[in-house]
DNA sequence: TCTGGGGTCCTAGGACCC
DNA sequence: TCTGGGGTCCTAGGACCC
């Protein structure tokens, strides 16, 4: 059996941890630049605030309804997530951390245990230990565990735990569960299925395999089997990433080469940092720029270029150079740039980077970067930078409603007045 | 005025090889 | 009119996830 454990309204719940005055109040968390709503407490959902909605459209509603608005605080969410996952891993050695707020757990050899009971205990322990409410769904496949989790969340009488472990139970649930709520069915496939009169999971599982494969590829076919209770997916190991992207929107449009260059160089050094973290070097680097697509009245230009590097590297200095060269080739003045990004691809393990006779990555960079990483780890991100980066911290993301990093900064620890 | 930032996997079609 | 039978690699685009 698999369990899918999911933190309820995770970011909103994190914001509430150190603000008990917000219990029962509507909370939303915004994306970078305070742009879109990316998390909502139940109370905020009830007000009709939609996921992904641009925040400025809701300014009035936020004020009228006294919605508590937060900029995203990933230092906090990441730390709380680690604590939750750590607790969950005491229930079984087989755990896959699927996202910041979800884990799949596999329960092999638990035939004589009550999963219902285990789920209740998990909820109780995680709530007590971290303050984060969770929902737990158990089922014989991952896709069904996802479904069970949604049922646990939706039906209050389940107490946040739902188990699908019999054929009859499965049949009963798939006859009711609608297809748009299924993990792996996105808006496109939903529309197609809906047009054919497919409404429930049961309808979907009755489609012929060949048709599903033709229309939805092997991914869709696997999903169909999963929903029938046939196990086709197992827990996945943490794999090193195949691509690393650092992209940001700017608070306004910029038409200044030096300014854009600084951003692109900074993104490249962050890519390099992330590469070193997983012991990879990259062989290909891509730089792209975007003008503001929400303003069709302004001239649009969305160039991108991909460079094959002469040798694999994870040196921030070298990647900064390559990124700058790439930028030079695509940058044109006369446009208002709203977003830029650097993507690195085609990794090789740092340990077996191919040496070349004439054209080597500077061997001293390895040691230098190790020291830079050490400093930045101890002193905070981007304390040690390249001179070509923004040393005066001119560039700031809009984060007007940022909560303290309660659990990871001594200086921001909660104050109790008594 | 203001609109996030990451990822993965799969397929089709073109270009090339013998 | 008829025109082999395999392959691989790459890219763009589509679909999905959080």
TrEMBL record:
Pfam families: DUF4113, IMS, IMS_C. Residues 2-186 form the UmuC domain. GO terms for cellular component: cytosol. Belongs to the DNA polymerase type-Y family. GO terms for biological process: DNA repair; error-prone translesion synthesis; SOS response. Keywords: DNA damage, DNA repair, SOS mutagenesis, SOS response. It comes from Dyadobacter luteus. This is SOS mutagenesis and repair protein UmuC.
């Amino acid at each position: 059996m698999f369990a899918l454990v999911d933190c309820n309204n995770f970011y909103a719940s994190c914001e509430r941890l150190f603000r008990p005055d917000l219990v029962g109040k509507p909370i939303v968390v915004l994306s970078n630049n305070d742009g879109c709503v990316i998390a909502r407490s139940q109370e905020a959902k009830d007000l009709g605030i939609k996921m992904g909605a641009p925040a400025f459209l809701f300014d009035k509603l936020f004020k009228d309804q006294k919605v508590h608005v937060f900029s995203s605080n990933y230092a906090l969410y990441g730390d709380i997530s680690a604590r939750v996952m750590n607790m969950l891993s005491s229930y079984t050695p087989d755990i896959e951390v699927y996202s910041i707020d979800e884990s799949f757990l596999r329960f092999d050899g638990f035939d004589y245990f009550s999963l219902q009971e285990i789920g209740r205990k998990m909820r109780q322990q995680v709530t007590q230990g971290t303050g984060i409410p969770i929902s737990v769904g158990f089922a014989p496949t991952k896709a069904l565990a996802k479904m069970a989790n949604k049922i646990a969340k939706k039906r209050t009488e389940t107490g946040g735990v739902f188990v699908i472990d019999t054929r009859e139970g499965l049949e009963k649930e798939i006859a009711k569960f609608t297809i748009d709520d299924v993990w792996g069915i996105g808006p496109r496939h939903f529309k197609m299925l809906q047009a054919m009169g497919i409404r429930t999971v049961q309808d979907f599982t009755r489609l012929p395999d060949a048709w599903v494969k033709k229309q939805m590829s092997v991914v869709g076919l696997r999903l169909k089997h999963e929903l029938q209770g046939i196990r086709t997916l197992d827990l996945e190991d943490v794999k090193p990433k195949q691509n690393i992207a650092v992209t940001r929107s700017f608070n306004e449009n910029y038409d200044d080469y030096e300014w854009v260059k600084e951003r692109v160089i900074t993104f490249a050094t962050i890519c390099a940092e992330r590469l070193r973290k997983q012991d990879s070097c990259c062989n290909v680097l891509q730089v792209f720029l975007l003008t503001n697509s929400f303003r069709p009245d302004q001239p649009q230009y969305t160039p991108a270029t991909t460079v094959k590097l002469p040798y694999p590297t994870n040196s921030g200095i070298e990647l900064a150079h390559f990124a700058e060269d790439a930028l030079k080739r695509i940058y044109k003045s006369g446009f208002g740039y709203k977003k830029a990004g650097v993507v690195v691809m085609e990794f090789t393990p740092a340990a077996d980077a191919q040496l070349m006779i004439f054209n080597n990555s500077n061997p001293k960079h390895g040691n230098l970067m190790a020291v830079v990483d050490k400093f930045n780890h101890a002193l905070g991100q981007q304390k040690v930078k390249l001179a070509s980066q923004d040393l005066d911290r001119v560039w700031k993301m809009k984060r007007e409603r940022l909560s303290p990093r309660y659990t990871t900064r001594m200086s921001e620890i909660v104050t109790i007045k008594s």
